[in-house]
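Components:
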Amino acid sequence: MAERMGFFTDTSVCIGCKACEVACKEWNQLPDDGFVFEATSYDNTGMLGASTWRHVAFIEQSRPVRVEGDEGSVDRWLMSSDVCKHCTHAACLDVCPTGALFRTEFDTVVVQSDICNGCGYCVPACPYGVIDRREGDGRAWKCTMCYDRQLGGLEPACAKACPTDSIQFGPLDELRERAEERVARLRADGHEEARLYGESPSDGVGGAGAFFLLLDEPEVYGLPPDPVVTTRDLPAMWRWAGAAALSMAGAVALAFLRGGALPNHQASVRGGTR
Amino acid sequence: MAECHPVGFQWVMEAKARGARIFHVDPRFTRTSALADRYLPIRAGSDIVLLGALINHVLQNGLDFREYVLAYTNAATIVSADFRDTEDLDGLFSGWDPETATYDPRSWAYAGTDEQPQGEHVEGGRRHAEAAGPESYGAGGAGAHPSPRTDPTLDHPRCVYQILKRHFARYTPELVERLCGIPSAAFAELAEAVTANSGRERTTAWVYSVGWTQHTVGAQYIRTASILQLLLGNMGRPGGGIMALRGHASIQGSTDIPTLFNILPGYLAMPHAHRHDDLNHYLELEGGETGFWGNRRSYLVSLLKAWWGEAATEDNDYCFGHLPRMTGDHGHYTTVMGQIDGTVKGYFVIGENPAVGSSGGRAQRLGLANLDWLVVRDLTLVETATFWRDGPELETGEMRTEDIGTEVFFLPAASHVEKEGTFTNTQRLLQWREKALDPPGDCRSDLWFYYHLGKLVRRRLSDDEIDRPVRELTWDYPEHGAHREPSAEAVLREINGVGPDGRALSSSTQLRADGSTACGCWIYCGVYADEVNQAARRRPRGEQDFVAPEWGWAWPANRRILYNRASADPEGRPWSERKAYVWWDAERGEWTGHDVPDCEIGKPPDYLPPEGARAQDALAGTDPFIMQSDGKGWLYAPSGMADGPMPAHYEPHESPVANILYGQRANPARRTFDRPESPYNRPGPLFPHVLTTYRLTEHHTAGGMSRPLAYLAELQPELFCEMDPRLAARLGLGNGDWATIVTSRTVLEARVLVTGRMRPLRVEGRVIHQIGLPYHWGWGGGGLVTGDVVNDLMPLVLDPNVYIQEGKAMTCDVRPGRRPRGRAMLDLLETYRHG
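Structure:
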């Protein structure tokens, strides 16, 4: 397998131009998402979805009044380009029954549209709400980290289009190193709130292949604060289920061996709760 | 800048990463503000107060870069005793003629010039007001005395320095707070940063966009910034200057090789029918004899040779008589009035959508409806081509399709990726563009269109004398391909120019006035040097130094920083090692450095011009501003401006506040139209708010190139207005509701974006609300998204120097809910006009 590739999205230099959204749609030939004015700052995209693989969030923030007549004035406008996290432990991949979702040689997670049967198991499995089924098509779609471009030795379209290098693409280890330096620099400049999100291999998804530098709590950006791969507990659950099944089978067998019927408490229990 | 120039903004971010501090001044908190170190909200239309206060701060505290100022500006020059300032005349400069509403600038002249140079200096502002004069001088400025009297101690009460100091003395931080709405603490921080970051070791740059130009005092906004930058020694030096971000790709190119009515290529003045008899007479009146404009005969004769070739000879004035002539103002808005009046019968609209993109859209459409014929060339069927069948005047009953006699020809155009050619962008950089793919169907390049139209026209010419200018034009470019596309490189080579041997020239200093050279635009001479398309060079930045001279080609002479002689001290040494750029190498006896020196390479710093010298020989070795007749940066403009030698704060034509500085409320020389198509908002409570307009990153100008594209249109699908939460609450408006915005021109509706990014400002003791409207929408134009036309709201009132409309500051009213339709909308409008 080749080196693990990833995205580092440094939101501290994002100017909200949405070139990433447009470049992504253009390269991947995604359909538009409709023409709806959302009245949520400059964000009319709303969220990631089957036809939106990059989404720039706009968050207007006010701080305490300093000048008379200034109440409610915005003095911070956070912008952040969200994308599929390409998790180390990817639940979408775990639950896919057809093998449409697979891990590439770049250690990214890609869905193959010609194999996907539209079962939709992956949709609730994603802890970030990234992958989605396309209406009228039924299949699941999400960011491929431009698998086709990577095969051709090119960087993904969004990173290529980003004018301020807010979206950086490269070997994940290098990006993590660069990100640490950037955070240290920002903190030294007084931005105590700067932090990385998704870069740690010890987090609930084993570290994201696409991680972020944020200037506030993840929830502010619409990101889950402590994402956990939804299939994390599956092995344990199977173990419990297996044990439970075994003991149930044992109990049943025992009952038959004893030759008597199990007492039925259910009706009285139900009645009691009413 | 992040909003409208996101790609260029990467360099601001780069500078920030290297420690630059970014201040952003804007009526709205934008995407630029979000990334700046400091954001200063300002009332739209009050920038001269802010910049003037910075100038005052520099002058009162002696913070100017004195050595630079003394050597390189006209600070020491003594001004005529006849001059009177706005401080003396309550908002007017001397020379005001209320009859014609123009200035006679004679009293603004330098003192002691009995034999005043002829031309602009004498004829003055009247002609400017008539034909937008100053632009025809480009960076050059009009003629002024080459060696005026000076007082190097700067004590003389009539020296420019002292005049400036008196003029701006009342532009204080308190005034900034009162008129701009900027708290004095914020101003103090800005003033400290700008001055501390200027001098020998450091430089400060200013960046502006259309927000500075679309005002009745737009040209003076830029003048104010120029004065500040000259005082701080920030011109002609790396990291300094004033960067004008143009409206879109190659707008710089469209003034260099102009699409303007009043200039010829290279900023030569367009001849006037009644003022210029012949070539000699024209050259005598237009521009000074000293400085590089002293060579204008060579520039013009070479241009005439490029256009008329063999036919242009010394005996026939090199066909000077073939040039078209102005008779007055033929600017955009005057032309529209001519259409309405029936004096303009035909109209070419190329890559523009005035029915949506120009101020006072209703007047535009009334004009279009009164033409005999109209040619529209664009990528899609823009509103300008369809107004007769779907314009808003049909809904109100003001127009009926069957009454419109205009014959409309729509010709589909090739986009920029479907044709080859150059872009010239804001820093004068020419970049060659290859064709990526063939244009579809009948779409053709503009070059193809004009070339073949010219051939068709020429085929129909008679032997009549009147047809001679077009008959004798050189009109023979190599053609290629199935559609006989003319060669864009051949055109670029013609613009570059050729010498007597027929080889491409390499510098404008090779141009001659004897007809032996031909050059389509003297400032572009060298772009095809050595028979190589220099604009096509793309050497990566890693393979050359930080000036990157082999990335494209910058006019003039591939210089990346203009007037860079000023980056060295008068003796020719860099001001500091840190800011070294070009310098005098005494051993080799020539100028050298990182860039192409912007002076004669062998002229020593101690050169003094002999008596009677002309052109560049009349400039001393210490004169960096080589296009000026005195070689100095003008803190005070003795001529060339239609509305005063120094900037003064005037309120916008429509403003909710009085001018507390002068009795004169608005720019007295501004151009207004006393016509029913262009009513103005009456002052008073009917229009209590300030309205400003702008663009969004997601769209392009009037939308012709973005509304039809799904990926862009979905990002900003609907016209909205931005307003502060306090005003929204007062009007009972919630986020996403509908609001109606009214001026006396029209009524429109927009969705409401309630945002704390708009701030109510305390101006003159009262709270002023500003409404922001992006202007990208129209009713059709092949758009996937539609919306009312914002530019319909704007008044037709113009800057007197360059005739740009005041689109960035006006008054309006806001009402909750959607606008009335049809006749009811006109009724509502009537109540605002007369009610």
